[in-house]
Amino acid sequence: MANSHHGSPGSKKRRNRTQGRGVAKPETSQSPSGSNPSPTAPSQRGVVGTPQGSDSDFRRSLNEASAPILMRLHGMPRWVIPVVMGLLLATGLFLSDSWAWLGALMLLAVSAFLAWLLALSWPMLTTGGRLARALVVGAVLGLAALKALGKL
């Protein structure tokens, strides 16, 4: 007996809740002998990173402190974080007059979240990725400063 949700036109395939959200498998390449695949080194993938085992005390403590928070965030539905961040950003930009201070705090919360994600992903980012993410964090911080000063 065939499964009714596979193969019929217009039917959606069911996805595992965590599919695509877990730890990515390392890229593999054939060894020189062509036998067993071996993980590709970060330099071969074009990713800038720190060698394993050379983590600083700050990086180690940041990762350890972030682990429970990341696990809680991972357990939430995928749409929650983008929606909450988008609402904080939009509300922070639109609040004005006597509520501008609250808008600035919302923008600071968004920039703090983005900076935290930047710090966590820093070793795995390319130089361009680091620059782009740092510019976004700086832009949101600049908007928060303008909002706090009443210029926005």
Short description:
This protein has 152 residues and is mainly alpha-helical.
Describe, in plain words, how this protein is organized in 3D.
By secondary structure, this protein is mainly alpha-helical. It has a domain at 56-148. The chain has 5 helices and 2 strands; from the N terminus they run ββααααα. The protein has helices spanning 42-45, 57-75, 80-94, 100-121, 127-148, and strands at 28-30, 37-39. A hairpin with a 6-residue loop joins β1 and β2. α3 packs antiparallel against α4 and α4 runs antiparallel to α5. Residues 2-51 have low confidence and may be disordered.
The mean pLDDT is 78
In total, the number of strands is 2
The proportion of strand residues reads under 5%
Number of helices: 5
Write the layout of secondary structure elements.
Blueprint: E1 28-30, E2 37-39, H1 42-45, H2 57-75, H3 80-94, H4 100-121, H5 127-148
Antiparallel strand pairs: 1-2
